[in-house]
Amino acid sequence: MTDLVRMGVSDKLAYAENMAGSNLLPKAYQRNPNNLLFAIEYAEALGIPPINAITSIHVINGKPTASADLMATLIRRAGHKLRVVGDDTYAEATLIRADDPDFEFKARWDMDKARKAGLNTPTWKSYPAAMLRSRAISEVARQGASDALNGVVYTPEEFGDESAWGKVRGTRTDTPAPAAAAALLEEDVIEEAPDDDPALPPEQLATMSVDGLRTHYTARQNAGATTEELDSIKALATTNKEN
Fold it and tell me: Are 19 and 25 in contact (CB under 8 A)?
C-alpha cells in the first residue's frame, strides 16, 4: 500500500496493466487496467491495501459498492463497535459509535422482511444467514457510520448483483470471491463471539474444523483483526470445506 501511494499515476497504471492479465481477478478487472486503476485509487482513499479494494469493491452503474465484510472492517477500524447475531431466519446488527457510546444503532432483517422486499433469489435461498447478515450490516452502517465508509454505503446485492457470492458447494464458480468464502463461515449460524480471542499461529489454524474456523473468524473480527488475518482464516475455511 505504501509503495503504491508513493507511485505516480503512470506507475499505478503500469502496475494495473501488469495485474490485469490475471484470470484470478473478478471479471470487472480482468484485462481492464482502467478499472484496476480506479480500485487502486479507491483503496488509497479508504486506507486499505489495493487487493482488498479489488476483491471487495464492485462498481455497479457507476456507483462503488462494498462487501459487508469490508464495511464491517472499516467501521471497526474507525473505532466503532459492531455486533452481529442471527441464524438462517434473521440477522441483527448493532453499532455503537466511539463518539456516542450511549446510543445504539440497530438494524434487523428476517426472512419475512426479505420476502416483502422481493428477495427470493436462489442466492437468498441457498445462503439466507449470510445474505441477512449482509443486509443488516449495510443498513446499520448507513444509519450510524457512513463517515467511515467514504461513500461506499451499499453492497453489490442491494443493486441486484449477487455474482460475487459464487457457488461454494461443489458447483461451478468463475472466481472464488471473498464473499463466497465468507458464506462458508456464516452459512449455518452467525454467533456473537468474545472480543478478546487471541490470534492463533497458522499451524494451529490448519488443524481446526470449518466450524472452529467460523467461530474464530467471528471472534477475531470482533477483536478488530486485520483484513489480511481474516482473509487467511477464510482461505483455510474454503480449503477445509473442499477437503
Answer: yes
What cell was used for 93? Answer: 446488527
Give the Å distances, CA to CA, from 160 to 15, 37, 77, 157.
31, 24, 28, 5
Where do the domains of the chain lie? 2-47, 68-242
CA 40 to each of CA 1, 28, 53, 81, 117: distance values in angstroms, whole numbers, following the listed order: 9, 14, 7, 27, 34
Distance CA 219, CA 192 (A): 8
Neighbour count for residue 185 (Cβ, 10 Å): 25
- Cβ(60)–Cβ(13) below 8 Å: no
Question: What pTM was computed for the model?
Answer: 0.61
Kindly state the helix (H) or strand (E) to which residue 96 belongs, with its residue range.
strand 90-96
Query: What's the full length of the chain, in residues?
Result: 243
The CA R_g of the chain, rounded to the nearest whole Å, is 18
pLDDT tens sequence for the chain (243 residues): 445 555 677 888 888 898 888 888 887 788 888 888 888 888 888 888 888 888 888 777 677 788 898 999 999 999 999 999 999 999 999 999 999 999 999 999 999 999 888 887 888 888 899 899 999 999 999 999 999 988 888 888 787 666 554 433 222 233 333 443 344 344 333 334 444 456 777 767 777 777 677 777 777 776 777 777 777 888 777 776 555
The neighbour count for residue 177, using CB atoms within 10 Å, is: 21
Q: What gap in Å lies between CA 25 and CA 177, rounded to an integer?
A: 9
Calculate the alpha carbon distances from 215 to 67, 102, 144, 211 in Å: 20, 28, 26, 6
